[in-house]
Amino acid sequence: DAGVIQSPRHEVTEMGQEVTLRCKPISGHDYLFWYRQTMMRGLELLIYFNNNVPIDDSGMPEDRFSAKMPNASFSTLKIQPSEPRDSAVYFCASTAGGFSPLHFGNGTRLTVT
Amino acid sequence: EDQVTQSPEALRLQEGESSSLNCSYTVSGLRGLFWYRQDPGKGPEFLFTLYSAGEEKEKERLKATLTKKESFLHITAPKPEDSATYLCAVQLKEGGKLIFGQGTELSVKP
User: Fold this and answer.
1) CB–CB of B48/B36 below 8 Å?
2) DSSP-assigned states of every residue in chain B
3) What does the pLDDT look like over A4-43, one tens digit per residue?
4) CB atoms B46 and A103 under 8 Å
């Protein structure tokens, strides 16, 4: 299995631009999570899906952030408009649920100038 | 408020010098506790899951233990390749949400 695949690995954009991060979970995993990691705040849960349905989006910072999961093998996290304080590493993770651990992708490092 | 605290923030060891990392938690209900290892530029990699007080898990030089209030990750005779950030995460019984600690950055010098 290729694991959780995220793209792009690095994204540099200017303030005000739209940014789209992509994730392909492990096949057969019913849960998908989006996390953000910064030095100050560590790993923060943004949103998670179960069977493509958003279950908890209470961690999404504000309306500029949105996430979709149109099918079991693809999810996007969009920031529009982006701001410098959005600079962070964004991780996608998936799990089969129950007591199974999360499996993380290698993240997208976002820099907003 | 549900909280997970790891200590120390950073730990420097000489090769072969054993030590322990701590993860203390205050949560409304514990479903499980996870340990992850994170290398620079990579996502966290799963190490162990612990479910109940008294449980222990081992893998090579690492051993994880769990009590009702904290977990320890013991590193025996570490090697430079054990250098990484070690993250602890608590899964809540209600809703299954995973809360991460800030991590301990371990550096092992030859």
Assistant:
1) no
2) --EEEEE-SEEEEETT--EEEEEEEE-S-EEEEEEEEE-TTS--EEEEEE-STT-EEEETTEEEEE-SSEEEEEE-S--GGG-EEEEEEEEETTTT-EEE---EEEEEE-
3) 999 999 999 999 999 999 999 999 999 999 999 999 999 9
4) yes
* Per-residue b or e along B40-76, where b marks 16 or more CB atoms closer than 10 Å to that residue's CB: eeebbebbbbbeeeebeeeeeebbbbbeeebbbbebe
Amino acid at site B52:
S
Q: Before B8, cis peptide (omega within 30)?
A: yes
Residue A5: closest C-alpha in chain B: B43
Q: Say if residues A79 and A22 touch (Cβ distance below 8 Å).
A: no
CA distances, A18 to each of A34, A37, B53 (Å): 18, 20, 47
pLDDT per position as a tens digit, B3-33 = 999 999 999 999 999 999 999 999 888 889 9
Q: Does B10 touch chain A (CB under 8 A)?
A: no
Q: How far apart are CA B79 and CA B94, in angstroms?
A: 39
The answer to whether B98 contacts A45, with C-beta atoms less than 8 Å apart, is yes
Residue A12's CB is within 10 A of a number of other CB atoms, namely 12
C-alpha distances out from residue A79 to A11, A14, A29, A49, B73, Å:
12, 12, 25, 18, 37
Residue A107's nearest CA partner among A82, A85, A83, A87 is A87
